[in-house]
Each structure stands twice: as C-alpha cells, then as structure tokens.
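Amino Acid Chain and Its Fold in Token Form
===========================================
Scope: a single protein chain, as residues and as a discrete description of its fold.
Amino acid sequence: labelled as such and written in the usual single-letter residue code.
Position: the record begins directly beneath this header, with no further notes in between.
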Amino acid sequence: MLLFCGAAFAQPVRISLLVTTDLHGNILPYDYFTARPAERGLAKIATLIREERRRNPNSLLVDCGDTIQGAPLEAVYQQYIRTGRLPQGLAFQGRPLQQDPMMLAMNSIGFDAMAVGNHEYNFGLANLESARKTARFPWLSANTIVPKQSIAPFAPYLVKNVAGVKIAIIGFTTPAVPNWEKPENYKGLRFLEATESIGKAVADLKVKHQPDIIVVASHAGLDRDLKTGAIRSGETGFENPVYQIAEKVSGIDAIVFGHSHQQLEESTLNGVLLHQPKNWGISLGRVDFEMRRNGSRWQIASKTAKLIPVSKETASDPEIMAIAKPYHELTERYLNMPVSESPADLDAALGRVEDSAVVDAVQIVQLHYAKADVSLTALFNPRVRFPKGKVSVRQVAALYLYDNELYMIEGTGKMLRAALENAAKYYRTCPDAACATGELINRGVIGFNYDMAQGVEYEIDLTQPEGSRIRNLRFRGNPLEDNQPLRIAVNNYRAGGSAGYGMLREGRILWKSGEEIRNLIVEYYTQRKLLPARADGNWKIVPETARRRLREEASAEAARPSTF
C-alpha cells in the first residue's frame, strides 16, 4: 500500500491557470452602443471556464483588472444606482440593487483572485471599497502602498494549493495611476515601480511559502513589440513594464497581463512565459503547467498557453444572465431616453483621416465646459452613426466609450504643436512623391491615441518625416507662435502624458470637470437639442494623393471587426 501511494504521489500533474482581463463591465454578450449582440462578456466566458474546469479540475481563475468601469451596465450602477442619484425620468422597477454586478457575476463563476486595475479608481475609493467588499476573492496589488486610516491594504499575493502543487499569484497595478486620476480618487495611496516591488514579493514568497509556481497577474502591458524589439511610441517602461519584469526579476515562471487591450497567446522572455487574453471577455486565457516530482519538490516540466475565443456558438451561462438582468433592464431604460436630434446623417468611419462632424460634436462640448481656446480629442468609436432625426442617450454616449474626465491645462503654442506632431505618428510618411504605394496608417499607433485639435487650423503633410509634419498652424486667423498662451481642453489621460503626450503633463491643470466627458456630452446635447450638421474643416491631410489613399484604408478598416 505504501508503494502504491508513493507511485500515485509521483504521477505528473497538470495545473491550468485560467485568465481574463480588462472586462470593463462586460457581463452580457451585448453591445450597448449599437443595441446588438456581441461575441464577448462574462456570461459567455463563464461557459468556457466551465468547459475548461471539466477538462482539468486542477485549475485556478484570475483576472488582471479593470472590471468595475466601462460598459454602460457597470457605469449606470457606479454613477447612479450606488449613489441613489438616478437621472430624472428613470426609476427602479422592483427591488433596489445594492451590490456591484461584476463582483456578483465573478463570485458566481468562482474567481480566485483579481489584480487591481487603474480603472478601479475611476469612481473614487468609496466605490472601490464597496465593490471589493462584495467580492469573495482577494484584490491583489504588490506595488500599491496603502496608509493607515485609509482603505484596507491590498494583499500582495495569493498562495493556493492545487492538487498538491503550491501556486502563488502576485498582483501588480500599473504605477501610472496618479498620471490619470484625480488625487481624491486615490488619496494617500502610493504606487511603486515594477521591478523592485515584484522582486520583493518574489523574495517574500520564497522565504515564507516556497511555492512551486510563481505567476505575476499584471494590470500593465508590454511597452514594445516582442518580435522587433521596437519600443512603442510614447512608452517609457513605467506604465507598461511587463518586459522589464520578465527581464530583471528572477524566480517568475509566467506573467499574465492586460491593460493594453491587445492579446498575446504565448511568448517566452528570459524563461518567463508571457500571455495576454483579449479585453471585454472576447477571449479566455489558459496557461498550462506540466508538473513532475523531483524528490520532495514539484518542478515545472513544461508550460504552454492558449487563447480560447468566445464565438457565436458559445452559450451564455444562465446564472450570470440572471444576475445581470435587473441591472441590464435599468441600463436599457436609461440609454433609450431621447436627448437630441441630428440634422443630417452622420458617419464616423473616416473620422481619423479627415475632419468629421462626429469628432467636432465632442470638441464642441469640451471647449464649452472647459472654457478653453483649443480642444484635443481622439475618435474612440469609428463605428458611430447618427441617422437624421431623434437621437437617444445610447447614440450620444457611443461618441465616448471611456469614462475619462475633462481637464483644462495651461499650455502654449509650442506644446500644442508638439502634441499634434505626436498625434501625426498615426500616419506613415509617403513612400514616394505621389503617395501611390504602401499603407499610410501606422498600425503601431492605436487609433484611440490619435488626437485631433479644434480651435486651430492646420495641415498634416505626410511627405515630411515624423516630427516635422504640422504646417500652416494658425490660431484665430494668425500663425500660432510658440510662446502663445493657450488654455487646452484634454481628458485626464492626456493630461497625465499618456501615449507619447508627455508635453501635456508639463501644463498646469487649471480646471477639472469632476464628471465624465460622456456625461457632459449627454448633458450638452440634451440642453442644445441639436448635433452639428457638418465638419468645419479646420484640419486636413496633404497631399491630396495621401488623403485619397487614407480614405481607402479607413473605409476598408471600417469593414473589419472593431478593436477601437
């Protein structure tokens, strides 16, 4: 009998780590901005998780953060339901809803842990703590220092025994949170840089727990292309330090990560397996560790990773659908409330290659509330369409997918020119004088990091190299001088210098909205009742041959699945 037990004890074991990230309030397989089904969300992911657990019961489930902000279902809960301040004309039908819907869904699925994301802070510490108390799993962040008499400190890691194998999960939050958030939303908290804080957690684990597997669950991504080594525009290694963690911190077996809304099935760096599932519950990640005994210790014989996409055929879990139902119904009533009117058919498909009334609709709002000279914004949703006629909250809210706040900073002409040059990296230089060949949209720059300006006139000359493309930049009819003072309206992320806009961080913040830009857009057009009919044409691409090619590329892009 002793020999039998010893033989069984020596059998190899497979441990599966199941991973989600950047769920952003997506519980249902539904796009609230188009009111159509969508192949994403926790209800479908739950079905995949159940299938994976049947395949291998020796599994853990972790999330890499940004859960309680994003989709309107969660936004309506955070802004209106939890505070009890419902918009006029909206009322509960049935029992009031008391708990965060994402946490209820994740409890039902049986998550083991969650790394804290930067968007967990968007609604302030009271909302963060309310959601956290609902969760039946720990929120992890090894690099967040919480002072006494603040919120409860975050655990740096979780250690769990699965089939006799001891696995440790270290949580990490991008330390760039203070670059974007209002100070009151993270009052007293400090966010340490990556390698020192993760190194300390690894050392602590080895002394206290001697785990067989160490995984970092990071709400921060890669700052570079792993194939070419090229560092992405605007990256410093501070916001997205996964590469640096893998390269410099010894003792880590895998890093599962998010934040950047990309996906990576499998790559290995310095012996560390890297894996990132897609945001919004579009795919589930799985990392498999094949474990073998070596004397009294387990050793990793191999490690592999796989992306498991949600599809149209993936069934929705009925329990998760039932949890979401009352929140969904209230959200739908809110989104269907009429607010404005469109004087013409408006389409944002070409809004990143030519001036657009859809983008101008956001710029007008930012200039109005910030009382600014110039406004900068990206087009976050190139699939926005406004048919002529009445417009609902749903349609107007689709202009701005993210829960950013509006800031007004003290800037100069030089600062604005530098910001526009950074934005112009979204385009490639014309490969020949006629711009006749080659792709002109730079796929290395995510579309939502391409900002356009209102309040000035300018051209972007693609025959010129990066850094020298902005020409004929004019303000109030005159050439814009470098020393011209400007009040610039930007969102809180741009004010923090994200995506290469470090020059904006140098501007003193003169005003903060204290409210999300999406809400300001809804409020403005509820009062004004009319969207702009056409773009004012204050900027354009030159030469004309480049403009034509970009129109073709943008039209083709509009036909592809959206990544925003």
In short: The radius of gyration is 24 Å. The first strand starts at residue 13 and ends at 20. The chain is about 30% helix and 25% strand.
